[in-house]
Specification:
The chain is mainly alpha-helical. It has a domain of about 160 residues: Outer membrane efflux proteins (OEP), CATH 1.20.1600.10. About 80% of the residues lie in helices and about 0% in strands. A two-stranded parallel ribbon has the order 1-2. The longest helix has about 70 residues. It is elongated and about 105 Å long.
């Protein structure tokens, strides 16, 4: 083989490797929205996949039992209840998975916003330190003023470092929940504004035993206990058997009543949490509006020569802080809605479709 041919082969090999590496990089980069993240988890997440497989298994068993002419009533009832329970479990799993993914997505997104805010704060602290040092040199400030400015800079610089270290960890956790390969680079879009809660508390509390897996199981237990009483209430079954069946039915009724009461309380608390979170969003938005007004005024004073540039920079950071506070408040509302959905068995986020 000639030297020229070997050289050309090496170049082609390197170019091919670079091309493959670029393709792999493209493959490992994933852009997500809050909706697409939840949809991906519901479509192929491990927990949902398992719950879906269990439902298919229960459906197959029910078909087999119904097709078997020798199946007795208790066997058929148990198969029907298993099928219904599997369906409720699948729906509940979807809401729980949606809650987890929503929380992970928002935590990662919020970490990115915190980095931007901390970066702005560090830049302001550096400027304040420079001013303090200049004032000290001009003998119009003390060393204590410089020390305070340096301490503020050090503290916020450490907060920035912590936020930068936290972001990849949060994104990696989200990627795992979505079943994405290790090392996948995630780009997260801005979350949409959370929806207003339109369902009433009474509506969400009604029919919990048909939507929540734990209550569905308790309800099925009561139905099966009632069937046992019906089957034992005759003149050829020992009286003791009937009494035991009635006792079991009464116990099942009490268990269901207690579970429904506890679940209703959980829904009420989650509902109130959503209302509180909505109020926090409204307050944060008003504070942001006030900060924007202050920033506009500071810029006007700078233009008029009645304010220093550092005052505008301070107003800009304050405006950025209030903007981040709105993001946090909206994220809190999203999380509260997801928690209410998991507690009530109703998707109030609109994401767990």
């Amino acid at each position: 083989m000639s030297k020229t041919h070997r050289y050309t082969t090496r170049i082609l090999t390197v170019l091919l490797a670079l091309g493959l590496g670029h393709a792999a990089a493209q493959t490992d980069a994933t852009s997500l929205t809050l909706q697409s993240a939840v949809s991906r988890a519901l479509a192929s997440g491990a927990d949902v996949t398992t719950a879906r497989a269990n439902l298919q298994k229960a459906q197959a068993n029910l078909r087999a039992v119904r097709a078997d002419p020798t199946s007795i009533i208790t066997t058929l009832t148990q198969a029907e209840q298993d099928n219904a329970a599997a369906a409720v479990t699948l729906d509940g799993t979807k809401l729980n998975v949606a809650q987890t993914v929503i929380s992970q997505y928002l935590a990662a997104y919020e970490a990115g916003g915190r980095i931007a805010l901390n970066s702005a704060q560090v830049a302001l602290d550096r400027r304040n330190l420079q001013i303090a040092q200049a004032r000290l040199a001009a003998r119009v400030a003390t060393q204590l003023d410089v020390n305070r400015a340096a301490t503020s800079l050090s503290s916020n610089a450490q907060a920035l470092t912590d936020a930068q270290a936290q972001l990849p960890v949060l994104k990696a956790g989200l990627a795992r929940s979505l079943g994405l390969p290790t090392g996948t680079a995630l780009t997260l879009a801005d979350p949409p504004a959370p929806p207003r809660l339109s369902s009433s508390l009474s509506t969400l509390q009604a029919g919990l035993e048909k939507r929540l897996p734990s209550l569905s199981q308790a309800s099925n237990g009561l139905s099966f206990a009632a069937l046992q009483v019906k089957l034992a209430d005759n003149d050829y079954t020992p009286t003791r058997t009937l009494e035991d069946a009635r006792t079991a039915q009464a116990n099942a009724q009490r268990s269901l009543d207690d579970a429904v009461k506890a679940a209703s309380t959980g829904v009420r608390d989650a509902y109130r949490a959503v209302q509180s979170a909505q109020e926090q969003v409204d307050i944060a938005r008003q504070q942001r509006s006030n900060a924007q007004t202050t920033l506009t005024q500071a810029r006007a004073r700078l233009k008029a020569g009645t304010a220093a540039a550092v005052e505008v920079q301070q107003a800009e950071v304050q405006a950025q802080q209030t903007d981040f506070a709105v993001t946090q408040a909206q994220n809190g509302l999203w999380k509260a809605l997801a928690a209410l959905g998991a507690a009530s068995g109703v998707d109030v986020t609109g994401l767990a479709k």
